[in-house]
Amino acid sequence: MEFVAQQIMNALSFGAEYALLALGLAIVFSIMGLVNFAHGEIIAVGGYTMVAMAALSLNNPLIVVGAAILAAAIGAVTLERVAFRPVRYADPTTGLLTAFGVSIVLQNLFLLLVSPRPIAVTSLYFLEWPIPFVGLRISSLQLFETITTIIVIVVMMLFLKRTVLGLAMRAAALDFEMVRLTGIKANRVFAAAFLISGLLAGIACVFIMARRGSVDPHLGFDPVLMAFVACVVGGFGSLPGAVIGGFLLGAIEVAMLVLLPQSLGGMTEAFVFGSIALLLIWRPDGILTPPREKGDKQ
Amino acid sequence: MTLSRSQKRGLVGASLLALVLILIGTIATYFGSKYQLRIVYGSYVSLMVVLALQVFMGNARITNLSHSAFMGIGAYAAAICVTPIAMKKISLPSAPWGLNAFALDPVTSGVIAIAITAIIALLIGLILVRLSGIGATIVSLAVLVIVHSLFLYRTDIFKGNQAFFGIPQVFTLTSAIIIAVIMVYVVRGFKESRWGIALRASADDEISAAAMGVNVHRLRLLAWVLSCVLLAVAGIAYSYYLGTISARPFYFNHVFLTLAMLILGGMRTVTGAVLGTFIISFGLEWVRWLETGPTILGQKFPEVLGLSGVVLGSVIVLIMALRPGGIMGDREIEDFILKNTE
Questions:
Q1: B2-12 pLDDT per residue, tens
Q2: pLDDT top residue among B88 and A55
Q3: Does residue A26 sit within a domain?
Q4: Structural domains in chain A (count)
Q5: Is residue A249 one of the residues assigned to a domain?
Q6: Residue A39 in contact with residue A269, Cβ under 8 Å?
Q7: Do A98 and B306 touch (CB under 8 A)?
């Protein structure tokens, strides 16, 4: 019983992390068709901000967390201004390759300006302690992560449904030209999308850092790879799809970790990616969209 | 067999490129130091990879991220076949299925490696060609991750991140030049063949092409398998020259590097593939020299590790922002000397 509960908790917290990142990818993709591979470097920006905070001996956890999230958000908005504006209306492949380029540049800048080696960040250890819960012990970090993700999703839903900018963003995903015709500034919509994706990456960064305890130039690569896959599973650009995909991926990963025999331990990633590939054959546009012939009316 | 006008032009273009390749190779062979020869060889292997990539990405216009994996499959398959038994007893003491109890000559090994890669490519291709756009890219990414995990996991066969050594070094720069020249003709030939034209049409407008009777999936599969076969050749050339391989060079870094070469030159043309490869190969070598902190005109420069990555990434970003079609766009080399009468 305890084992099962623990694994469910694991799946939820993995899924929460992927869902946070996948949402950030999906909101950008839905509006500008950009597969933002540089999302992982935004996480690393947050991580390095924590290092900087420690160097400035600012150890108040609220300041550290706040600064990391703020830095990630600023980083994302800056990337939009500097790198992604020229490819705003280009096809997805151009955007994808640009994002790859940005990701390589940032990773190597971290390597060049900071250090190729991991740097320990100890200011977030306080987030982790065991909580007794009806006879079980669960990790506080996992609980925080799941709850935070749920809150974030609710807040985002309210923002998208109840505010003018949120409405504009949802409309932009369907028909950007129309949104511009109604007098909403395109720049503002793009900036908002990147701001939100940066905030989400910053929040995810806090949990990733609390779990890993160190930051290196490649910090964000693996989580974003998984988030990317989560997006595809849910249907790229669909926000509910990103959340469902994220949690599903978390569940698949934990299931693989639990069910695969010890001797196949190194193959978890391969099995996860393999099952995703199979899923895509069944539903090429993600699990929420039924397969459709090219050229069918929407 | 009569050739169409574009095919004749293609023949001229491929011959011009072949001339350039032979020229660079000959200069390197006669004047290059041993170290420079290695770099030039490396760039010819990259050229093979980029040409192979062009077959699929340039004609079907689907971004492929799994090419390094297929290069790895070819390299490992050939290496396992060709390495002498005595060597394999040391390097692969616990290999299953009697893999360390036989050795073949380099040619047979190469043919077997190409066949194995082609079969794997065909099986994966059957799935991949049904998707298009981002979905296909993701599946190719999944293929890369899966193959890499296999390389790392089956250390008894592939030795993972450790070096697989003892492969006979049967290739010289001359062999690489010959293979690259043949490949230029094959790749350009495919581009101008009726399959290539139909495939490019389907990339422009999948629905219209299908309505005109183009079997998009089958053509994509053809280009995919051809691309993977050429990648296997590149992998074989890589292992036959270096004599040691490991799983690390067949992963993300290599994927991005070769992708950058292709998009810099322009993925739609064979000329672009060649141009991009040489610019990045030789340019990067120069940047790496800067990276080590050289002394220029008596001025000592500091060591800047990671500079090559920054430059590579910036090249991709700038090209995408300024010239999404790459340097060449839609122009092939012969367009500069032959009259353009469309």
A1: 778 778 887 88
A2: A55
A3: yes
A4: 1
A5: no
A6: no
A7: no
Please tell me the distance in Å from B304's CA to the nearest CA on chain A. 6
The fold for domain B5-336 equals ABC transporter involved in vitamin B12 uptake, BtuC (1.10.3470)
pLDDT band (50, 70, 90) for residue B16: confident
pLDDT of residue A109: 87
Q: How far is CA A179 from CA A80, A170, A184, B168, B214, in A?
A: 19, 10, 6, 64, 38
> pLDDT tens for residues B46-87?
899 999 988 888 888 888 888 889 998 988 888 888 877 777
Q: Which residue is listed with tokens 């190719």?
A: B140
Strand partners, B299: B296
**Chain A residue numbers touching B210 (CB-CB < 8 A):** 294
Output the pLDDT for position A195.
92
CB-CB under 8 Å, B143 with A277: yes
Domain boundaries, chain B: 5-336
Q: How buried is residue A3: exposed, middle or buried, by Cβ count under 10 Å (0-12/13-18/19+)?
A: exposed
Mean pLDDT along residues A288-292: 63
A110 lies in some domain: yes
Is A84 at the interface with chain B, CB within 8 A?
no
Helices (H) and strands (E) in chain A, counts: 11, 4
Angle between the A92-113 and B307-322 helix axes, to the nearest 10 degrees? Answer: 150
Residues of B in contact with A285 (CB under 8 A): 135
Asked whether the beta carbons of residue A104 and residue B316 sit closer than 8 angstroms, the reply is yes
Neighbours of B38 (CB within 10 A): 14
Q: What are the C-alpha distances in Å from B117 to residues B77, B113, B318?
A: 8, 6, 35
A86–chain B Cβ distance below 8 A for any pair: yes
Mean pLDDT of B143-172: 78
Q: Is the pLDDT of residue A298 over 60?
A: no
**∠ CA(A71), CA(A72), CA(A76), 5° rounding?**
115
User: How many helices (H) and strands (E) in chain B?
Assistant: 14, 2
Looking at residues B201-216, what average pLDDT do you find? 83
pLDDT at A183 over 70: yes
The complex scores an ipTM of 0.78
- Return phi, psi of residue B295, to 5°: -105, 115
Q: Which domain holds residue A8?
A: 2-220
Q: Are B258 and B46 in contact (CB under 8 A)?
A: yes
Residue-wise pLDDT tens digits, B115-134: 999 999 998 888 888 777 77
**In this complex, is the C-beta atom of B287 within 8 Å of any C-beta atom belonging to chain A?**
no
Average pLDDT, chain B: 82
Token pair for residue A147?
């709850």
Q: Does pLDDT of A234 surpass 60?
A: yes
Note whether residue A13 is domain-resident: yes
- The confidence band for B164, taking pLDDT boundaries of 50, 70 and 90, is confident
In DSSP terms, B300 is beta-bridged to: B295
The answer to whether the CB atoms of A112 and B305 lie below 8 A apart is yes
Mean pLDDT along residues B98-125: 83
Instruction: Say how far apart CA B113 and CA B79 lie, in whole Å.
Output: 9
Chain B residues whose CB is inside 8 A of the A229 CB are 138, 142
Q: Are B266 and B280 in contact (CB under 8 A)?
A: no
C-alpha B128, offset from chain centre: 19
- HSE-CB for A216 with a 13 A CA cutoff: 7
